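Practice record 12: protein with 1-deoxynojirimycin.
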Amino acid sequence: MLDLKKLIDGMTVEEKIGQLAQFNANVFSGSDADITGPLVKNGLTGDDLYRIGSLLNFKDSKEMNELQKRHLEGDRNKIPMVFMMDVIHGYRTIFPIPLALGGSFDTELVEECTRMSAVEASSAGVQVTFTPMVDYVRDARWGRVMETCGEEPILNGIMGAAQVKAFHGEDMSKFGGLATCVKHYAAYGGAEAGRDYNQVELSEHILREFYLPAYKACIDAGVDMLMPSFNVLNGVPAVANSWLMKKVLREEWGFEGVVISDYDAVGELITHGIAADKKEAAKYAFKNGCDIEMCSNGYIKHLKEMIEEGIFTEEQLDAVVLKILELKKRLGLFEDPYKGASPETEEKTCLTAENRALVRKAANECAVLLKNDGVLPFSKEHKKIALIGPFADNHNIIGFWSCCGKNEESVTVKQGVQSKLPDVEIKVVKGCSDKWNEIDKSRFDEAVKAAREADIVILCLGEPQNYSGEGNCRTDLDLPGVQNELAEKVIGANSNTAVLLFTGRPLAISKLDSIAPAILNMWFPGTEGGNAAADLLFGDANPSGKITMTFPKSVGQCPIYYNHTNTGRPISKQRDEMHNPYASNYIDCGNLPLYSFGHGLSYSNFVYEGMTLSKKEMNIDGEIKVTVTVYNDSDIAGKETVQLYMRDLVASTARPVQQLIAFEKITLGPKERKTVEFAVTEPMLRFWNSENEFVSEKGEFTLSVGYADNMYYTERFSLK
Ligand code: NOJ
């Protein structure tokens, strides 16, 4: 039996500190790595190399095996390094971005996709993934909205917990089992003005009700690690923020896992103006419970000195080392430091036909039919198809954070349509660029001619995949470049047009919406995007995704979200388009969004036939059963997510106008009817009050089915 305490007793202080250091695998690269290059840039010596506890990013199983072997030969304690990477929406076979996946409202699908990515990643040597990312978001300008499940705290938590479970698999110590790291704690998604890394100022009740619950849900699900965010939260950067890191995380929530800084976030305490130098930065981070320092060298350079000066004790260091070694043990690394990763396994495991089939299914389930005036689904009988737009034959549709996925391995829309309809004549015209600063219209005539001559037009528009993701924020949320003008010309030439939209965020596409007969939002669908698009366009799949982040009418409405408070001067839906003086609204735009949270159409016609409550009064320990009946009044089988919302009508803190409290995705055959039952209990009614506690207050509530500001039925009940 491996005795970790004994192992630690035999280690030098330098060796112990090494366990707290993580660097990019490139510190080992180059023939003369010991004297130049990344090693020197990171302020490391050759001796440090054999002490490093974990590595971030590496090419493949071959490199991983070489690095581990070399390390174990050089480390006298024979403690394996642990290899970490961001496996966000697939390792090699890429499924839709998380913002899309959340909108499937399908936890089983999330688990299936996550499991597939865990096995692929494991075959390549990944042992820890920096997932789930559950940052709550309200501002579509922020590029990292694509990594989240959007503006719904409960949904974010449910999807995050599903990922934790699926990455672990049945036995985390075996091949295919990955440890997880929830991020970015906390409120990284609250960046002011939607600008990445910008400061966050939030009241405690907004933090507690909206931003923190999803991190907590992942902790409850057994997440192994946690990453503090880059941002300043209420004046103090997360990694040095004792309220966040000590009081809430460790004391209140009892998190005992490993905390790892984000990339150079410890070093950045100096740039934030919080620490005078590296030593002080390392001091603040260590003091606040940051166990591993990612890609900065404050611990390696200064922790020993701080122990000698009595700022920290060696026992404190030992406790952190123990946590890290325990994680390595749980991962099974002391038994097999390679965990079965090898080029042969990788070759067999990644990008298989089975994995491709799964991500195709996922892309089908995540696409959102935003608008349909009846043109979709297209008949397969058409003879001539025009595929127009910058995404018509574009492999760059897998999305940001695609890990080891390759654009060239993805299926384009053209390829997808061609393989579905091999005998049809397809004309492809790019028409224009998808970049914001490229405004060449010289190919418009060609596009118009192709549209005129075709039976149907598939107009493929959107923003490039590197317009979202880390560091990629926008101030304009409309289609970049001259795509709106292209759309106007093409739709003018042929009204039998459906738009396929590719995006990593909600877009403000009011202009397009006003002219397009149909808009099918593919998000960034992943490796099988083109095949999924063809399935959906021609009715082999029926759209069932919902948006989990509001699409604004105009960027000036941002941040815009469904779970807002009422204000003292709201305006009615009927008066939304006019300016209502002295009311909470704008002169030049209504308050309603273009598409609300929870919106998403289907080729089926779902009719909500009624909602009943088992009683109209509930005691604090009681329960109300809510039943909702949905009928599929069509000849097409489909899926619908039934969403239950709650509103607390009078409370000591102003409450949101709607809050999602439960959902269920159901499948309905043609002319089929189903009844869904939800149980409403008191904890679902709680909020963070001004006394700093989660409570419910007696009084009147409403329950509604529908979505955001489009409710089909609303009933009242009271909490006694
Ligand atoms: C920076 C990102 O903020 C974080 O999400 C990621 O896990 C690390 N880099 C490591 O790649």
